[in-house]
Design goal:
By secondary structure, this protein is α+β, with helices and mostly antiparallel strands. It has four helices and ten strands. It binds copper (II) ion. This is Phytocyanin domain-containing protein.
């Protein structure tokens, strides 16, 4: 009985861990790394957080991926690359917070729209709101938690979920 409980907990934590780190295929699901995709629209739908990865999938004969500085990005200039990717299936880990800039290294493609700017945020910052009912008055308290360990992040997610359950129960009771 005890071992079965342990297995269930392990599965739940593994699923949560998968949900915390995401792989973002550039342009997907409607496009890819090509001349047609609107990348500013694509990034606007996604929240990039540390631990995620970018995946560039494209024809290596047609395109490339060049990570550049903001200056290179703004001037469509890949002549001073930070990193150059050429395989057609390139994975870029997003390890730290900040903004990163990618363009296509093929002549004129960047000008034609093959440029993407990705803003990576910390996933460890969470705002937790705790509410308490006193009679028919609800008192809420917000607290922002900062941690670096992934395991702590998992624990905090669990706390948030439990908090939601408590709030739902409160609404039902009152
Ligand atoms: Cu290209």
């Amino acid at each position: 009985m005890a071992s079965r409980a342990l297995i269930l907990i392990t599965v739940a934590m593994t699923m949560l861990g998968t949900a915390l780190a995401a792989s973002h295929t550039v342009g997907a699901p409607d496009g890819s790394w090509d001349l047609q995709t609107n990348y500013s629209q694509w990034v606007s739908r996604i929240r990039f957080t540390t631990g995620d990865e970018l995946r560039f999938q494209y024809s290596a004969a047609m395109h490339s991926v060049v990570e550049v500085s903001k200056t290179g990005y703004d001037s469509y200039n890949g002549s001073s690359p930070i990193t150059t990717f050429l395989t057609g299936n390139d994975v870029v880990p997003l390890a730290t917070i900040g903004t990163r800039y990618f363009i296509c290294g093929v002549s004129r493609h960047c000008d034609a729209g093959m440029k993407v700017e990705v803003n990576i945020k910390s996933k460890e910052v969470r705002t937790v709101q705790r509410c308490r009912w006193t009679g028919n008055q609800r008192r809420c308290q917000s607290e922002t938690a900062l941690s670096s360990a992934v395991s702590t992040g998992v624990d905090q997610s669990t706390v948030v979920r439990l908090g939601l359950v408590v709030v739902a129960a409160g609404v039902t009771l009152f």
